Amino acid sequence: MQIMAQEPLACRCNGTAARPESDPIAGHSRSTIERRQSMEGSMGTMTDFWAREWLLEDIALRHAINDLDTAIQIGQQAGLLTSDAYLTDVGRRYVKDNRANEVVVALEQ
Fold it and tell me: Where are the domains of the chain?
């Protein structure tokens, strides 16, 4: 009978054998948890970025303007954007409510 290891064991600094990295019993290290929290923060940032992009495009379409600064000013006056052009809670709610109701019109060819 020949026993072969499916994956090599990693060695710790003190020379003792460690569990393979794919071992589910080993649990999650602190760096894995911190990395996951960082990714979740990044996802929130990306969601806000695309929501702000949609809001500015919506403002530009509704007011028939092509100037980004003007769209930002309109959003700020309406309370949808902060003075730094980030979404306010009202702005997030506006995007959530109106983006879900957006109608896409197919162009006839």
Answer: 28-100
